[in-house]
Amino acid sequence: MNLPNKLSLFRVVIIPLFVLVYYLIPSLEWMDYVLAPLFIIASLTDFLDGYIARKNNLVTVFGKFIDPLADKLLVMAALIILNAMQLLPYWVTIIILSREFIVTGIRLVAVGDGKVIAASKLGKYKTASTMVGIVLMLLIPYWPIFGDVGLWIVYVGCALTVISGIDYFVKNKHIIMQSM
What per-residue confidence (pLDDT) applies to 26? Predict the structure, then answer.
């Protein structure tokens, strides 16, 4: 297993730890000092795995599968925690999760046909903006002004979620039509 794939798997391992910190650390103050750094570390692995894979020609079929899956799981966990903390409206989470399930469904149909669909640039922008917004919202205890900025960046990520979802569907509708 190459380094980029190990980084993606590391990101998957951080997710349960991230959720456990939220639910098991009784002091909100201590939780705040752990949640943001965990999410930042996990988000940095997203940048690093892609950069290393492309730079060193280490792109694999497994990497094309695990990288976007790890991103989805990380973002889903963070959005649900932000909902529970009452920092993010539920409708944002519903839109983002719906798009992720639809895209995952299309990817599963493609895999059934022996095809792997890599993440698009628009999807990467969506993920990056959502992750940056989440980081800022998790930094509220340090700098409260980041909450509003982070929320607006998550809204941008939500808009990109809808746009990239439509783009993804249009570009891959032939896969869906062939499977019917």
Answer: 62
Residue 113 has pLDDT above 90, yes or no: no
- Residue of 10, 155, 18 lying closest to 84 (CA atoms): 18
Separation CA 102–CA 50 (nearest Å): 23
pLDDT in tens, 64-99: 788 888 988 999 999 999 999 899 999 999 999 999
Q: Do residues 77 and 96 touch, judged by C-beta distance below 8 A?
A: no
How many Cβ atoms from other residues are within 10 Å of residue 124's Cβ?
17
Q: Following DSSP, what letter does each residue of 127-141 receive, concatenated?
A: HHHHHHHHHHHHTTT
In three-state secondary structure terms, 88 is coil
Residue 126: helix, strand or coil by DSSP?
A: helix
What tokens does 166 get?
A: 């439509």
> For the domain that residue 121 is a member of, what is the CATH number?
1.20.120.1760
Question: Global pTM?
Answer: 0.87
Residue 175 near residue 112 (C-beta atoms within 8 A): no
Name the DSSP class of 113. T
The total number of structural domains in the chain stands at 1
Domain limits for position 148: 3-179
